[in-house]
Amino acid sequence: MNEVATDVQATYPQCVKEVKSTNRVQALFWLLIAVVLLVIYTQQPDKDTTFGLIQIALIAVFMVLGVFKLFVGSSKLVYVPTGGVVEKHSYVFNVSLQSDILRCLEEGNTARLKALKTDDAGGLLVELLESEEHLFIAARLFKYEPHGYEAKTDWVTMKR
Q: Does 10 have pLDDT greater than 80?
């Protein structure tokens, strides 16, 4: 999503921005569970039982989850005026529909574009970015070339 994010931000700098977040609350929750399990484990007189081994495994899992969530953040695109998350959808079409797709992009008609028949073996890919509240919709057409998909159009603002 990162190259899509920068591409969209360059085209729509006032509307869309990438927000990075680390889930600190969730990370602290997992680490707290690990600490509680560790305290319970250290209070047990017989630590060599199967239950003790399960506790050690759970402590390790919760510690790894907590550390992972603490240092690895996620990023998402946000529509600035409303704060709504922008979701990416990909549609694959047959090459024979290229003129129809280009017409949909020129007209900015999302409903007509979504009504076209998709084809998993097609050579055209349309990336559609849509905010939660459907106030921001943008699309771009890619065509499959021998080395992968190449952008054939710039981002186009669409309407619902």
A: no
